């Protein structure tokens, strides 16, 4: 179901859509916001609690 939702989101969002993910890292500088541009939602999966 998550895969289908992602496909739907990818179809609805333009290429230039910017989204942010809350990246919780256990080492280094702790939690921080990362901004990504494009359709690659998979980029935001590693170490992220949620996307905005």
TrEMBL record:
Region forming the signal peptide: 1-18
Protein name per the record: Secreted protein
Keyword set includes Signal: yes
Domain of life where this protein originates: Eukaryota
Keyword field contains Signal: yes
Organism: Trichostrongylus colubriformis (Black scour worm)
Keywords: Signal
């Amino acid at each position: 179901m998550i895969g289908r939702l992602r496909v739907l989101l990818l179809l609805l969002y333009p290429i230039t859509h910017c989204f942010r993910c809350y990246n919780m890292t256990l080492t280094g500088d702790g939690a921080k916001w990362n901004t990504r541009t494009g359709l690659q939602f998979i980029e935001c999966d590693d170490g992220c609690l949620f996307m905005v």
